[in-house]
Description:
2 copies of one chain form a homodimer.
Chain A: E1 4-8, H1 15-21, E2 24-25, E3 29-31, E4 46-53, E5 61-64, E6 71-75, E7 78-79, E8 89-95, E9 100-106, E10 110-118, E11 125-134, E12 138-147, E13 161-166, E14 169-175, E15 182-191, E16 196-203, E17 206-215, E18 220-231, H2 239-250, H3 255-273, E19 276-278, H4 281-297, H5 324-336, H6 338-350, H7 352-361, E20 386-387, E21 394-395, H8 399-402, H9 405-421, H10 425-445, E22 447-449, E23 454-456, H11 474-497, H12 499-509, H13 514-524, H14 550-554, H15 582-588, H16 595-605, H17 616-627, H18 630-641, H19 643-646, E24 652-653, E25 656-657, H20 663-677, E26 680-682, E27 687-689, E28 699-706, E29 709-716, E30 719-723, E31 731-733, E32 736-738, E33 744-748
Parallel strand pairs in A: 27-31
Antiparallel strand pairs in A: 1-8, 2-3, 3-4, 4-5, 6-7, 6-12, 8-9, 9-10, 10-11, 11-18, 12-17, 13-14, 14-15, 15-18, 16-17, 19-28, 20-21, 22-23, 24-25, 26-27, 28-29, 29-30, 30-33, 31-32
Amino acid sequence: MNFIVKESGFDKKKVMLDGTRFFVGNGYMGVRGTLEEFGKEELCGCTLAGVYDQVGEGWRELVNAPNGLYTRLFVDGAEMNALEVEPLAHEMELDLRRAVLTRETEYDKVKVKTERFASADNLHLLMLRYSVTAKQDCEITVDTGIDANIWDINGPHLPTVDEGAVGELLYIDGETAELGNTVAVCGVMKTDFDYKLERVVTENRRSLRVFSFAMKAGETATFVKYITIYTSVDGVADPLKTAQEAVKTVSQQSFTELLAAHERVWAERWEAADVQITGDDEAQLALRYNIYIMYSNVPTHTDKVAIPARGLAGQVYKGAMFWDTEVYMMPLFNYTHPDYARNLAYYRVNTLDGAREKAREYNFDGAFYQWECQETGKDACTDFAVIDIFTGRPLRTHFRDQQIHISGDVAYGIWEHYIATGDEAVLLDGGAEAILECARFFYSYAYFKKTKNRYELLEVTCADEYHERVHNNFYTNIMAKYTLEMATKVLDLLKEKYPKKYEELMTKLDYAKDVPNIREMAELLYVPAPDENGIIEQFDGYNKLECPTVAELKSRIIDPREHLGAPVGLMTETQIIKQADVVLGLLLFSDRYPLEIRRKNWEHYEPRTEHGSTLSAAIYAILAAQVGFSDWAYKFFMKTATIDLSGNYRLYVGDLFIGGLHTAANGGTWMAAVQGFGGFKFDGEKLIVNPVLPEKWQSLSYKVICRGCRYEVEATKKQVTVRSAEGRLPVSVFGQEYSMESGEITVAL
Amino acid sequence: MNFIVKESGFDKKKVMLDGTRFFVGNGYMGVRGTLEEFGKEELCGCTLAGVYDQVGEGWRELVNAPNGLYTRLFVDGAEMNALEVEPLAHEMELDLRRAVLTRETEYDKVKVKTERFASADNLHLLMLRYSVTAKQDCEITVDTGIDANIWDINGPHLPTVDEGAVGELLYIDGETAELGNTVAVCGVMKTDFDYKLERVVTENRRSLRVFSFAMKAGETATFVKYITIYTSVDGVADPLKTAQEAVKTVSQQSFTELLAAHERVWAERWEAADVQITGDDEAQLALRYNIYIMYSNVPTHTDKVAIPARGLAGQVYKGAMFWDTEVYMMPLFNYTHPDYARNLAYYRVNTLDGAREKAREYNFDGAFYQWECQETGKDACTDFAVIDIFTGRPLRTHFRDQQIHISGDVAYGIWEHYIATGDEAVLLDGGAEAILECARFFYSYAYFKKTKNRYELLEVTCADEYHERVHNNFYTNIMAKYTLEMATKVLDLLKEKYPKKYEELMTKLDYAKDVPNIREMAELLYVPAPDENGIIEQFDGYNKLECPTVAELKSRIIDPREHLGAPVGLMTETQIIKQADVVLGLLLFSDRYPLEIRRKNWEHYEPRTEHGSTLSAAIYAILAAQVGFSDWAYKFFMKTATIDLSGNYRLYVGDLFIGGLHTAANGGTWMAAVQGFGGFKFDGEKLIVNPVLPEKWQSLSYKVICRGCRYEVEATKKQVTVRSAEGRLPVSVFGQEYSMESGEITVAL
């Protein structure tokens, strides 16, 4: 059990949140958990990874495909639509293990049951099984097909569409406004009963078949919809034709057969990635939900995109990729499905040219990675990203031009993938080049302070985004320093093992002159150090800012929609921060700071943190677990784990809708469980396993793959067991190292 | 003629402006041109130079002395107060030549005439002659003495006072809140008629004598008030006693005798500083008014203060000294009254320790001069200087911590004084030290950009104050570069001529290690250069900002009180600037840029300038004259020359009163006449005289003292004549050099 997310009863007010909560997806498409009879007003969306479009001056964002699930049911002439006819009963059930969403709705005369999945086996395939059971004799009419009247935030992205029907096959074919990408959706319906085809509709952005049949009380009528989606981004010459052929082929298989193939993929995923908790069903279910979301959104078929900040649950935040990918999402895949992680790493190699171009734009060298990255490698972020609600004027923000830690995060992601997998392919195939370019970017961004004989990084936006234009931000500087160190390691590695590749790169990048600079800056870049109380100042002058409590500060808010960050938000001139910054740095570089320092800084910064970002709680959870604040760790773990389940998140900033999945928190939940409570860390040479379980938990079991070998860890409060049939690397448990030669070790705690 | 500023008629709405316009002062005290019967509501003020006080958290500001002019007139029992009884006629007349303010008011039964002057001969003396002429027989009562119910912006600065009378002598003695400074005002009245003393009042913050007498039609009764002011800031042990003795002594002299002594000083001033224009009476009078204001405010008795931004016409802007002193006010005194200029130069030597302390506060070396400097050398400026009118929240401004050009301006002032006078005393006596410390400050403020092999100055507030936190501001960087160059010149001068002093300073300042740094930075400090179109970018990225017209931008204003500058004012993210910046740099360093470049930048920046500061017009006038835009030059000259006469200036920012004299514009007017149209410049070796007269002007004559020798320049459109009985230095006219051996040269144009 603990794989079933269930909700009973129908509540119009929950339509938006449930659409996100009951998401199904396969990394190619994301399908919001809206009911089959819903339309654009209810935010129906089938969001397509990597298909972006811009209309006029609007935000460039992901495209929603026409809705192939669209189905309206009429009983004795009256429509059964949950929005208009109050159901006698209604239940949504998401089976995480099978990645299948089931809906059951009971009306006066009929019960409706639907099952849907976005196939993990065939990414172009979306399946729906729709059953009607008659409670009394009745006449049924069904109106089903494809609806292109879909949710668009900054659309319309398919301004005109071709509606069509070829025999039983329906299709809608559209073209995006900006790049002219084709988006084709085809559908075929199969029934287990006879019906009368009333009409075929191919107009008004809909391709539909309307059919009717009579039912006797107790009878069940079931039909299956096969929906295929192809776009020109897939690299096929004629997406419509391909989708038509695909739907003909798959519709020769039964729903059950196709579902079985889908389930096989998911079974393999859970085998690799499930984390088991005993003693806490709520935590167990929440944790699995987060893992489910990550696997439903990761692109397994392409390295041209990664996982957007709001997943594929809509177009929010432009469907853009941020630094969350590397810092919050890659760890799960690095250690449970490294081939998926490799896609994420290559994504940054594929956008390296864009990052170079952005560096040039600002007169820097190397690679300045995009703050909001889509498929082209251009930065989708704007200079005036927020509206001042008091004046209606756009506010100049520095996400795009000063959040330079992004280049460090990207380099870190590539390097950590190499550390986890030992796979040099990504490095040789552009990853090393990206790391060297990121290092060169930091060198060109930095200034040298002669009176202090050190490099500094000035005017940056912190990981804590409420503070912009600050100098020597701890997180930024330590990430930059690590990038420079990585670059020197990459240089050493290439020179030693791949001298030809080394020479090639030196020439291609004209890098020889940079080598001494990179080495010098790696040495002399200033990173704020703990003061006499052990506290690390988040940036120059932070300690001199006003320090109200979070509650005090919130009491100053005049308008709930007001922006709290720079340039003049309430928190800008205070020590109150949006999210983990020093604490994040100390977590990622925990080997460089003694436990006591990490503990003190957690205690110092937590009361100063508003946790206004869903990126915050996971990090505070993990560091709390590491430094022994286990109650706090549990509290923050549950906070991050339940964000998307509970819907307890901000839906609007100003008039900007920001709802959707929170993929950083989803990835962060796995990190909090495995790296926090599970105490897992891998340094490239050994596994470190220092588990600390919350009071409630009897045991915690997880699996990781390190350098290609599978390990299974089972921790209770009394002992920890590590098993591996193939484990070649030693395991360190609370400082004591153990060989894995015997295939299993058990250490009493 | 053209020495009389006159106004007829009484208008209540003009009380505030006239109080400023009809100012009399002597650099020790400034007396607002309010009527004798006025009180605190009418902003009566006798502002004392160098006497500062702070009450609680209020702004620290100049103290107003109790009002010794206070006089109320009753005719047949009814008070004749212009505010309440509409006068039949009313005239104010300020005689600039004599520095005497006359007031004539006619009522039904009487005419009143008063004359006042703040003695330039005895700075502690304020004189009033009050005459009543009866138009019919009447009974007169006069209520006169000292009133301590005075205008205070952030007071009360004399929270309790002693009121007293000793025989005919009245006094009020008060103590300031912060430092316990004593402020004593004494008064003696003499009449030319007999009267009946009704009573003596010494309570409620007033010391008064009430007396009465009968008049016949046609008779005139005149009394004279001798008022002396001493404070403990003067260094006298017992200010009250000193003031009492002083008033006894002076009251043995007649009004006429004391006036004559006062007039002698002013005659000498006009002899040295008058600038004569033929063909334009309006310009002539306005120009003289500005010279009058400067001489009425310059401290001739002390080097512990300079000239506040609003003069001694009240407490506005904290009575603080800004960079205007060096850039806008010293030139007039350097070239017409160098001993007064010396006080201004020494003022910065006297506040050097404060500047050092401020540098320490921000972890810099050397001297970071105060943005708003009072007598202590502490910076009176705050970090949150402006209130956001939309939210009521204080806005973080960077006047105090980033307007670093102030240290360059101060060094420039000291050096320019030395250039003008050849007097090494100020240099040897702390001036050289100040310059060296300013240079060291810039070195410690600067960052080195390795990729560009240059020093840069980051995060500064421009001379154009709408743009803060910018990098490599042209004005700041060129001023800093000049400071570094001055420092190397100072080092060379001392080493060669005063080796002992040189060694002393090296040791005292531990400067030896800094010498190579200063020399290197003087060489390698980046100063933005003209681009391919000849335009100098005001700061990094300025050219990329939005560029609306000034009118367009102003149309976006929502509230007339809103702050237009940083952090989020309307102009911050645009190219619209408040005041001259690049143009000011090009003016001060005109020898470094060809005329064509100066012309192009004037044309480029003028349409981008809001002229929101009264510091702007003079600079645009001078450069316009230099580059041949003579219509523009005249327009901007008249604008700067008439600011205080017309009262055409902003009175409020938010709810902050900012009225008062505009001493930068006053000094700037002289500069515009002499350096602009007069084409005067002195480089330490020769006088440069390139006059360009506005169309309207037939001739322009001015006098300057260069290195101790007096020169007289008379320019028409056809020729220029330079005379000097003692001139040792050559004169260059439009590039041709002439010896002054003959005592006079005339060059045809």
